[in-house]
Structures are given as C-alpha cells and as structure tokens.
Amino acid sequence: MLTFDMVHSAGQLLRDVAKKTDMILAPALAANCELRLKTENLQRTGAFKIRGAYYKIASLSDEERSKGVAACSAGNHAQGVALAAKQFGIKATIFLPEAAPISKIEATRQYGADIRLSKGVYDDAYTEAITFSKETGAVFIHPFDDINVIAGQATVGIEIIEQFPDVEAVVVPVGGGGLASGISFAIKSLNPKIKIYGVQAAGADNMARSFREKDPLCANNVSTFADGIAVKVPGTITRELCAKYVDDIVTVSDDETATAILSMMEKQKLVSEGAGAVAVAAVMFDKLPIKNKKVCAVISGGNIDVNILSRVINRGLLKSGRLTNLEIELTDKPGQLMAVSAIIANEGANVISVHYTPGGENMDINGCFLNISMETKNREHLEKIKTALKNAGFKMC
After folding, report:
1. I want to staple 138 with a disulfide (CB 3.0 to 4.6 A). Which of 33, 70, 227, 249 is the partner?
2. With 90 as the cut, is the pLDDT of residue 98 above it?
3. Residue extent(s) of CATH 3.40.50.1100 domains in the chain
4. What angle do CA 282, 254, 276 make, to 5 degrees?
5. Is residue 102 a contact partner of residue 306, using CB atoms and an 8 Å limit?
6. What is the CATH number of domain 49-140?
7. Class of the 4-38+152-318 domain?
8. d(Cα 72, Cα 117) in Å, to the nearest integer?
9. Lowest mean pLDDT: which of 106-115, 294-303, 352-361?
C-alpha cells in the first residue's frame, strides 16, 4: 500500500541521485492561465523515470540484487533502470520494442545494460521480460505498476508543491499511469483542493477510457509517435490510484502534440519528446477547465530521436499554418506566376518551392496547376493570402 512515508523516504534517498528540476514560467504557451512547466525533460537520463527505478532497486535485498534485474520499456524507464543498476553494481537486462528510437536504445546500452529488442510495442517487450525474469530469477522492475516505483515518481509531486505552492491544477502525461498515480497521490495528500488532470495520446487512450467507464480496458494496438505513453494495458495499481486521485483524463492528437513540441522549442528553448509534450498540448488546445488558474504542466521527458524531431517540426509547422502547400489552377500563359508571386510577396509570405504540372483531361487544353510551398506567420496569415488570391481571380484546388 502506497503511503506518504514511502514518498518522503524516496525523496530523501533521491536527494543526491535525481535533480530537483526547474519550474519555469511559460506565458507564451498559454493565454488563458498562468502556466509553469515542471522540466523533467532536464532530469538525469532525460526523463523522470530515474526516480522510480532507483527507489525500487534501492528497496531490494542483497540476495535479490545478486540475481540482477530485468525491465521492459519504450526507452526512458530502460535508461533509469540501467543507470540505477550501474550505480548499485548489479546486472540489468532490458527489453525494448524494436521500434524504440535509436537514441534511447543506444543511451541505455551506454549505461552498461544488456539490451534485448522485441517485435511490437511496449506490451510485447513486457511479455518477454516477464518470461526472462521467471527463467533466470532476475527481479522484474515494472515501469509503472509497482508501489515503490510509484513512490519514486511521486517525488515530482512534492517538488511541484515546494516550487509552486499556490498551484491550482497540475497536468500530467499518462501512459501506464505511474507518474500520474504518484503525483496525484502526493499532491492530494498535501492539498486535496488541487486539481490533477491526466493526458493521453488519442491513439493510446486506454487509461482515459478505463477512467470514464470505471472498468479496465485494453487495446489490440496503439498508434502514436509518443512512444513513451504507447501502452496497450493500463496498470492495475495505477488505474486504482488514478480513479481515486485524478480528477479527469483527456486526450490530444499527434498533431496537437507536435505543435506543442514546436512551441516549446521556439518559445521556451526546451526539447520535449512526444510523451513529454502531451500535457502542454492539452493546455494549449483548451482541453481542460483551467481558465485563469495557476497551472503546472509536467514535461515528463526530452528523449526524442532527431529523425522523428524533424518530422514533428514539419508537422507542427503545418498544423499551426506556418508551412503550407497551395495548389492553384491557372491558364498557361506568360505573367501568371509573376502575378501569383506578387500577391504572396505583398502579403509578406516566403515561397520555398514552386512546381508546375500540366492540367488534366477535364481542364482547358491550356490549363495547368501551380503548386507552391510557402512559409507564413500563422493560420490567420495563410487565410489572408488565400483571400487575396481569390480576389485576384485565381482558383485554388
């Protein structure tokens, strides 16, 4: 049973292990509330997971440690377990989904863990890790459904209260529920009036559905680039704790998450992975009743693969209306491109590519299509350009 004494003990133990990450004011990300960011993306190993992993391993007996530990993870828990095991001088065998970002796999390997890649997603790696644990006697370190792990993650909640004592709402990413369980337990124990909101990816929303339907649910598959919260089955312990202490769980789309990542990079100079950005996305896209409230959003991790990051930036630009592709139907005659370009230039946009294609069989024989990619300020700016083109007689497809 989780107790506040366990959370306090974890905080004492982690004092020289985990950073007390900064709480940063972020007015540029939210106009309707006072938003601060708890920057666990700047934690050791790049995520909050070191807290729970270290406290769990510290609780093992010498005999248990002698058999080593096993874990499964999409990447962040893997690094937390690997680092903790290294500091305790014990062997760690980590099972990761083969689709996990290369950066997370290599970072885990560098901490000295034995890496095993599993086909599928987190839950498939979980099955293999459990089998390995039973066959070898290695202690399985669950990424979220473990009381000691949850107690370690709960130390984030203690820090939030210390750093932002008048906070009225805390927004937390949710995958298996370990972080949300810990934070909500700690904060509600200190101040039951503070609202706790969980956020999941829309393509991996099992905890949200279980929360609403009061019944454990699982999915055959999940679909989100936020690999850190791509969990098919919520934890038993975490589901019960979330049901008791979390006020609501909402979802955000991958496009909304991508926009949040881009906004944090530009406006706060912070790099977040998909799982780490969902809380900010929920605030930015008005998913929560937090108007005029003092709000803390937890950025749970920053371990994003650079290849995925480039795609996310592009998607974020498209979502926010700052990068767009226009297809314009023209008559193929001199001066048409100049006229279109002049309108775009006068409106202050930047053309980055132009492509011409002949018209189809249902167009005039002199018809053609002009495809233009351009950078704009925002969606309002884009609509202004479209209106100017239409007023000049150009037809957009």
Report:
1. 70
2. no
3. 4-38+152-318, 49-140
4. 60
5. no
6. 3.40.50.1100
7. alpha beta
8. 10
9. 352-361
CB neighbours (10 Å) of residue 62?
7
Residue 185 tokens, joined: 């337990």
Which residues, 6 or more positions from 3, have their beta carbon under 8 angstroms from its beta carbon?
A: none
C-alpha distances in Å from residue 89, one per residue of 15, 19, 75: 20, 21, 21
Q: What is the C-alpha R_g of the chain?
A: 24
CA distance 88 to 125: 24
Tell me the CATH class for 321-396.
alpha beta
Amino acid 361: pLDDT? 66
Q: Whole-angstrom Cα distance, residue 296 to residue 299?
A: 10
From 130, 154, 147, 114, select the one nearest 72 (Cα to Cα): 130
Q: What is the pLDDT of residues 52-72, one digit of tens each?
A: 999 999 999 999 999 999 999
Please name which of 194, 309, 298, 321 lies closest in space to residue 247, comparing C-alpha atoms.
194
pTM (two decimals): 0.88
